[in-house]
Amino acid sequence: MLELHGVSRSFGDRLVLDDVSFTVGRGRLTGFVGGNGAGKTTTMRIILGVLAPHAGTVTLDGAPLAGAARSRFGYMPEERGLYPKMQLVEHLTYLARLHGFDKAGAASRAHALVEQLGLAERAKDPVESLSLGNQQRAQVAAALVHDPEVLVLDEPFSGLDPMAVDVVQGVLAERAAQGVPVLFSSHQLDVVERLCDDLVIIAGGRVRAAGGREELRAQHGTARFEIVADGDVAWLRDVPGVLVDELAAATAVFRADDDVAQQVLRTALARGPVHAFTPLRPSLAEIFRDVVIDAPEPDLQEAAR
Ligand SMILES: Nc1ncnc2c1ncn2[C@@H]1O[C@H](COP(=O)(O)OP(=O)(O)OP(=O)(O)O)[C@@H](O)[C@H]1O
């Protein structure tokens, strides 16, 4: 397990990370979500050891990270950095050589990755001639070239079409299934919602929520239910503790706590057949609004003084 504990960092007198703590479990795809300037890249650079924290620790399975341990990390930085003139497969072979693979091993690794990321037909193309989406896939391949023990990816899904998202997600999920902690940042809440097991939501340099996707859905947002009955369900309006959001003849969406919802179901069944009764979990966008937008912005600069 990769763990950040109490990580803080300032630039000049600007505090940009404030007591950031979270874990990235083995076998879990962890999405790191936050708006522009929230502190995602800074956090990732600290994990990688590119930037030093001013306070706090980063550990892997409880052990502090030395340089050698980090050489087993795979990182896809925000600023994409492949040599534009180099052929894709040649480039990946070169990177594998830098990581200590022998010539044959490096070439076979490069070919396997090109294949896995759906770039086989582009293998001999110079990197600069690839479409943006394919360059992005190439960057993911570059982060994976040495079979890393931990994967940290800054916006790996940005600019990808839905098919490419699935390809990259498949590759990351496979690494996660092998026990690799995988942390990726994203602005695309719908993508994160679909792909990740765990979530870390950061805003203004502070972690606002972290945990399993389902756990967070259960904790945040209002519990809502949809009911589809046989006859009119307008009677719902008169049930104490029920707030009807939508009503159309035999279908309604309402808010209520779990006990009241169960009572509604019993009442509905006593009245006639119920075709569907579904808890509607809040979407990630709703949770994000709940924990980020609705929460008062902490005055980090004040806290830094
Ligand atoms: N080297 C630096 N010097 C000064 N300020 C910096 C530096 N790097 C980052 N910052 C500031 O730290 C804050 C967090 O930036 P960071 O890049 O970590 O955010 P982010 O969540 O990755 O944002 P984005 O989604 O826009 O990439 C920002 O206000 C940024 O301006």
Overview of this protein structure:
- Residues 299-305 have low confidence and may be disordered.
- This protein has a six-stranded mixed beta sheet with strand order 6-7-8-3-9-10, sandwiched between helices. A four-stranded antiparallel beta sheet has the order 2-1-4-5. Strands 12-13-11-14 form a four-stranded antiparallel beta sheet, covered by helices on one side.
- 36% of the residues lie in helices and 28% in strands.
- It is elongated.
- It is of the alpha/beta class.
- The chain binds adenosine-5'-triphosphate.
Any descriptors?
305 residues; alpha/beta; six-stranded mixed beta sheet; four-stranded antiparallel beta sheet; 14 strands; binds adenosine-5'-triphosphate
Secondary-structure element string: EEEHEEHEHHHEHEHEEHEEEHEHH
Strand order of the largest sheet: 6-7-8-3-9-10
Flag low-confidence runs: 299-305
Tell me the span between the first and last alpha carbons.
Answer: 33 Å
| Shape annotation | elongated
β-strand amount = 25-35%
How many strands? 14
- Total of DSSP H or I helical runs spanning 4+ residues: 11
Judged by helices, strands and strand pairing, the structural class is alpha/beta
Which hetero ligands occur in this complex? adenosine-5'-triphosphate
Biggest sheet architecture = 6 strands, mixed
Summarize the amount of helix as a percent range: 25-40%
The average pLDDT value, as a whole number, equals 89
Q: Any idea what the radius of gyration is?
A: 24 Å
